[in-house]
Amino acid sequence: MAKTYRIKKQRVAVQTADYLAVLNEEQRAVVTAAPGPLLVLAGAGTGKTRTLTHRVVHLLKQGIRPENIILVTFTNRAAREMLNRVEDLCGSVSRRLLAGTFHHIANRVLRDHASAIGYQNNFTILARDDAKEVMAAAMADVGVQPKKQRFPKAEMMQQLVSYTINTQKPIDEVVLEKAPRFLDQTARIGEVCRAYVQRKVRMNLMDFDDLLMNFKVLLNEVPAVAKLLQDRAMAVLVDEYQDTNRLQSDIVDLLAAKHQNITVVGDDAQSIYGFRGADVNNMLHFEQRYPNSRRLALTVNYRSTPQVLALANETLRHADEGFQKDLQSVRPDGVASAVVPCRDVYQQAEFVVQRVLELVDEGVSLDDMAVLYRAHFHAMELQVELLRQGVPFVVHSGLRFFEQAHIRDVLAYLRLIYNPNDELSFRRSIKLHEGVGNATADQLWRELSAMREQSNGQFQGKLVEALLSVAGKRAKAGVKKFVEVVGELAQPKMLKAPDEMIRILLESFYGDYLEQKFLNGRERQDDIAQLADYAAGYEDLSAFMNELALVEEFAAEDPQGAEEKEETLTLSSIHRSKGLEWSRVFVIWLAEGRFPSEMSFREPGGVDEERRLFYVSTTRAKDEVTMTFPMLHRQRDQAQVLMRRSRFVEEVEDLEVEGEMPIVETWLLEDAYEDEEGEILPITTNEDAEQIEQGES
Ligand code: ATP
Ligand code: MG
Fold it and tell me: What kind and span of H or E run contains 258?
């Protein structure tokens, strides 16, 4: 006969009782809700994240042990912040919680259980670059020769595999959706996927997607481990649930399968990761998956002034899909937001920097300000202007524009022309060509150095022949192309036109290279076209190189290092700004074709996803949103074209009054100078350009 004997575990002491006092009634209802599936569908800034944190405290107070609580956050930083708060209220228990991003939690679990699925627990996490090598080997296993036949390159294969895993869709569906031109190769693509998986298992390697995939496999296919984890998961809490993909929501459901005590919070109007496979239906269908679930709402926004919210609400009113009703503010009236048409990108950068410095003078900390943008390259001129004026800034996760691989590739060529002794740039640029690896690069560099005297640093005549003669068979075509491109770039007239050099690179081979190699090859080409436009502002190669030296010197400093305590302005893509807040928010490059992006016009639902992105950007602001865009922009053909203000600006710019205060004001910029008496006098005004623009649209 068996009998149950219970061991009493000590409760965590919650040191303060007022964790409920700082919440409103709706929030308290969420925090104290009885165990069971719970969906909180609520707008921006209504305290979802705060409420989730306090629910953790409440669960601890109820006697649930920290080990039994799983808290999933969008970034590890968010997890840290939430845990700090828990720590304030409960003392040092937070390390015992299983908290962090999906990847973080999966990694922790797999460290204990990977051996159950054919791995060893000391598996290595594969960095993206190394994963590419493994993929290339897997392609060879299957007998694919991407150089000889039409087949996705290793990088693209990686991206296809990643999307397949994250959406849990069959591979043929993914090929159809993402790379239809390879549809005839679907069967082989599937074979490569399998070979890729086998290789990784053999080498005890997991890439980032494997962490999630294998986490699910453990839960789904290894009953003993699943039971252990499901017993443990007495409470599962998920923030930013609207942006989970299918794989992630499966994991959550499996984890919560036993206790069914799952709390998810999210805002359908902020779902912005569709392009990566996130599916807002995970949230919208929550109630079908959990028929006995409760739904609670939070309706009061604590973050923003009524003026900021009036702006944000208006944006959603223009959406095709219906979202929940307007956000209500509890805060007193604030200032109006600003729409600022700028002459061009340079004036846009100048304006933002001057305005930021002015706000600092008024006592707003740099830490309380952010500049947000749709795409990384939109901040290029701004980064340069900030460097020039010595304003400290951080670029939120994501490389600074000039540190991105494709930008560095292009710059390597320019550098090599500028300084033919630059071995690093030589190696980087020649290795971009078919069949040229380290060995060939070494050999060619030796040859080049030996002949430098005679060749005068120019890639011509005899030197070219010599290079070709030392190149191995496999590398010949690549070296030939390299020599051709460099020859074209090195023409004397080019030295006056760095922008032309960049365009030549793009057209001669680098555009194709990106297209072949990356699913987002188009976007990368856009970055480079933008770089060319930017270079057009410099009189010659040398001036351009000098400016870049400044940027690089700065980049070499560790941004997170010594100066950590210094106040810094945040530059961030909107995607990365999720869940965060600042007093003043600048949204730049609000022009049609940029934000919303050109690409979104072609995709079904594309513009609505952009609109939600815009909504996310404005709802980051507590006190003021400043929206800017250039009216004139130099395009590829060097002519200045008129840009049209974004539809998102058009939709809100005529909003009038909320409470006592106007909601939006348009600012007309004029260049000015300070005369001897200290009087500020205008030089030019933007009103003319403004009128042209309106006449156009
Ligand atoms: P987002 O949708 O952007 O993720 P959210 O719903 O998660 O927003 P929080 O970040 O939790 O909202 O809260 C927004 C701001 O409002 C924070 O500064 C938070 O501290 C504050 N706040 C939330 N609830 C209250 C409250 N009851 N009293 C005072 N301030 C509050
Ligand atoms: Mg939040």
Answer: none
